[in-house]
Amino acid sequence: MVDARAGGAAARVGAAAGKQQPSPPPLLSQAAAELQLQALSRWRWWPPSRAGCLMTRRALPAVCVAAALAAAVVVLSAGGDSPNGMPTSLFFDDQQGLEDIPASNLTADHLLDGLLTADFRYLSCRSRYEFGGYHKKSSHKPSPYLIAKLRKQEALQMRCGPGTAAYNEALRRLDSGDGANADAGDNECRYLVYISFRGLGNRMLAIASAFLYALLTERVLLLQGGKDVADLFCEPFPGTTWLLPRAVGRHSPLRDLDGYDEDSKDSLGNMLQSGAVVSESAAGGNLSWSSARPPPYVYLHLRGGYGYHDKLFYCGAHQRLLRGVPWLLMRTDSYLVPGLFLMPPFLGELEAMFPEKDAAFHHLGRYLFHPTNPVWNAVTSYYRSNLAGAGRRVGIQMRVFQPKQPRQQVLDQLLSCVRGEKLLPEVAAAATANGDAPSHAVLVTSLSPWYADRVRDEYGGRLAGGVHQPSHEGRQRSGDAAHDMRALSEMYLLSMCDVLVTSGLSTFGYVAQGLGGLRPWVMPRPTSWDDWVEGQAAPEPPCQRALSVEPCFHSPSYYDCAAAKDVDLDKVAPYVRRCVDASWGIKLVNESRSEWW
After folding, report:
1. Per-residue pLDDT reduced to its tens digit, 186-210
2. CB-based contacts of 469: which residues, under 8 Å, 6+ apart?
3. From CA 381, how far away is CA 203, in angstroms rounded?
4. H or E element, residue 154
5. Distance between CA atoms of 555 and 593, rounded to whole angstroms?
6. Which pLDDT tens digit goes with each residue over 505-515?
7. 445: part of which helix (H) or strand (E)?
8. 523: helix, coil or strand?
């Protein structure tokens, strides 16, 4: 398949740029409508038409270079930048000149080597089958066992999902307070409800973790949608929805999911302390419910800062206990996957699914998260206009958690990292680069424009591909649909780069590196709970290469259930190591070194 990242075709289509610009197509969502209204008052600019670029039956429209690229020719050849960032007018569903692709014409590149099913209409979610055209072909292919598990999970979601007779019966039993159905056996539908929590990066890592747990325990995954999930992501499962319908029962446990916390009487930790669970042996190896049947639901409190009893979730005996509970409600803000790999009941399944353990999120993220058409249109339009023509794209993700840390010190750390690792040509070299040298483009994502401006000043516009910043929103607004659509678009733009520099502890950067299969250079960051001291020295070295593309699990349990004591986790298994940006956290690595970009 032709790589949609190639920018050389722009010159061949520049003559098409003079076509009349169309009116925007119908919008998909309220959030997209709000973005559109903002655009009308600010830029009054629309992407040029793509009607003249007819898609063939065997190629995705991502490879059809259109009139919008004519602007990229001017920008890249002049060494220009994108001062206006990503116009909000890009966030609409642009399908003009496109046509659906028959499932029989989808290739292994479209389906990410079998990771994705072909059971969706292409135009319903363009990012699903276009993703591969904007990223380097991954050398880390999904295992046949993982592919089989995904197809089995899709069938389960369809059989037991919202709107089915099985779901309605399970909901009736939950709302009535009935426990598990003793006569149902293994065919009973069981559910895992993820409770939305924190910012978008945290939520994506938590959803991936919840999905893997659902795979391991044969549960239907349902998301507390919030107001923005449908604006951000396409449905990952064919023929059903992963969004939890609004609870209608006055006393339904699903009615006020935001009210669950560490003090909830129905949490696993509190039930273990209240006598709801009894030990069947003196050694405590087998546990059972004190009632005749398992409870109808259990709340799993797995957010950062959780206590000892809630962390017993990671023990095999407690997993056997939870097996019979029809509904599990999970709140977490973390990437739990390394913790699941340390649980003996799951290890065999996990090793079969992920022979390359350090590719877990790379596969899970690319399977689950497909930006909606408005978000994907913004991503691909910005990419083609600003980044496609560069020979080397360097992504810089800036996040400062300690507001008292001087900006100049953070900037000096970044520039020291970039120079020390030779990620960009020296200023003099950039000025004298000839046509044979690869052009460089820099993508900066930050809540502030200051860092991109300083990088632009440092290189004086002499990078052939320029320095670009899609947005600078000033502050994080979690749960704001328009803000999250921008954040998601920037995660995907970072994943399309060749090289990444990220800020330590940032889940935003974790998502980007995992989707793109990029092993970043990580800049250590003081945490938000650290006290900043005036004159405090900058970290040295300024950055370190991450051990793998996997996200860091910031809040693992150090408790060894079999030994009944805390242990040093990075000495328990050869595929678990401490994170370079969080000494208390752990991440998955490959025992035999695998190459990532």
Report:
1. 568 999 999 998 999 999 999 999 9
2. 82, 85, 443, 444, 445, 446, 449, 452
3. 26
4. helix 144-160
5. 25
6. 999 999 999 99
7. strand 440-445
8. strand
